[in-house]
TrEMBL record:
Keyword annotations of the record: Leucine-rich repeat, Repeat
A GO CC term attached to the entry: cytoplasm
One Pfam family recorded for the sequence: LRR_14
Protein name, per record: Disease resistance R13L4/SHOC-2-like LRR domain-containing protein
Domain Disease resistance R13L4/SHOC-2-like LRR: 89-155
Amino acid sequence: MFNTNMQKEKGCSLTVLIAASKFKALAFRARARRAKTKYRKQIEDDRRWGGRKLKLSGRSVLPIPPEIFGLFELEILDLCTEWTSGLEYRIDHLPREISYLFRLRILNLDTNAISNLPSEVGELKNLECLTVTCNKLNTLPMTLKKLTKLESIHLASNYFEVFPLVLVQIESLKFLDLSCNRIDAVPVTINKLKYLKTLLLFSNKIEILPDTICDFIYLTTLWLGDNEIKRLPKQFGQLKRLDWDMYPLSSNIAGNPLVSPPLNICVKGIQAIKAYFASVSFKKNSLINT
């Protein structure tokens, strides 16, 4: 009986907290609709991406003005620190109220000092592009998997030591940049990103690539340079869209202690890699049959 009463009390407390949170959000939105802030006047149409955009930097962004979370028409929010504005004006955290901007398609947080993203980012259901390069991230909230429209995520130059597994649950991703981190392994489940076209893992500490990295059908750009990779998967030649001869920037593999295939073979491109493994397989079969 005592346990039952305790459970009821906990349930009631949780209901009250949820209700209070919703009331706070609604009250905030009501005040924001009435307010004619200077930030609304700064909103402009973005010709490149298409949509209503607000760009803040320097003194105007630190601290982040709470009024901007009432600009519900925003589709693009750019809070990237510009070098000309002085790096002393860097954001160290993103407020949970970011979830109020439910129309956001592009969120740019580059060149700041953010060490964590709030779980509320997962409520931005219309988000297509998230850029958080040159920050201090080492983890990502699991709520990112709720972003079913997210196609592009930029996480270069952060503090990741482990590949964020939540990323492989965002099946809509086409562009993923984790360059210039400290990642030492790529998960076997990387092939869940079946629509991936660009994968940038340049300058990490990766030693082994899983065989599943060869399953990508649409991959056209793969940067693996400056890692600790000694061997490529035997089916690497399946990545036919990595045409290094026609498009040299489609791949980067230099700066690895490659043995199989050796670097002088790898730099020639996918066809050379494919021929190398075919030759190795032929020699092994020949030895077995003799």
